[in-house]
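hey can u run this one w/ pyridoxal-5'-phosphate bound, need the structure tokens asap thx
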Amino acid sequence: EYDFTDRVERVSPSATLAISNKAAELEADGVDVVDLSVGEPDFDTPQNIKDAAEKALEAGETGYTPSSGIPGLKDAIADKLAADGLDQYGPENIMVTPGGKQALFELFQTLTQEGDEVVLLDPAWVSYEAMAKIAGADLERVDTAAHDFQLEPALDDLAETVSDETDLLVVNSPGNPHGAVYSDAALEGVRDLAVEHDFLVISDEIYKEITYDDVEVTSLGALDGMEDRTLTLNGFSKAYAMTGWRLGYFAAPESVVDQAGKVHGHSVSCATNFVQHAGIEALENTDEAVEEMCEAFEERRDFLVEEFESRGVEVSEPKGAFYMMLPVDDDDQAWCDAAISDAHVATVPGSAFGTPGYARISYANSKERLQEAIDRLEAEDLL
Ligand code: PLP
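ok here u go:
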């Protein structure tokens, strides 16, 4: 008998992990599973980044680094953010972390506690809820699924949900699990509400570099009035195909970095030394490889949207990230169970993201495998 804390007991295990486990079980039995449940690029990390890591290792960059990150990386991040219109951030405003997830975790630990109100826009990435709950916060949720996953038409609902009691809103554009990019008008609406009710906003921009149709993503913190209210989150996992390297960061007012530095210093100490050196190379010399990966994702998006539409299934066309929400039965859990058990296609139920009636499809997979998935779903009458 162990006496577990309330803070872990109020959190559910990751729904995405449950699917991966099921897929792994089937594969262990020799079944070929088309895995559309994963949240990572199917590409290898670009070679120049690997070379930079190797060079750093050879040069003996193997010890602890300054807790908030090596100066060269923080400078490179500040330059990248300034290029995105976020010129309020200098190196002193940046915390380099082992993955964007850790950056978010530190922000929640630093800024929210028992009784605080956190607002999410559904469908929302699964870990926001878990992190808010671990911190003890209460959640309010605003649905965007009814509006094609756009925020602008959901602003009235957001205005009705937030109040002077609200402490934090999380915005994620391009978003996981839907790939929608929020309009400037939507972001301005968020700004007006944040100023009116004096709350902070986490802008999770981890998919900012992965967009289609020449869409540009505005950084929330670049809007007048949001400079000191925005906590900007990004990382290297998605844009540079570096999920396993664990490297991310947040940028925030200096006092937030200082306070979060206690959580950071007493938990992870610092991000991995030679990985930080590779991060500089990623930011400075990898534009071409990022563009090539984006082009591949865009082709696959076009392919899937067309394939679904030719079968009478209307999907909201994603403008970024590498996910789309496929409308399925109301009982999305049952649909996803059938998809994996009968068609051997792994997807994630929308209800895991707060939006039943959909399955999240990751198209970070080859066209051949996407075609195979469609054929199998069709053969099992799931499309
Ligand atoms: N934010 C969103 C919306 C994500 O989908 C993810 C990864 O799945 C992350 C943040 C964190 O990624 P990482 O910890 O690999 O940087």
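The chain has two domains: 6-45+288-379, 63-284. anyway lmk if its weird
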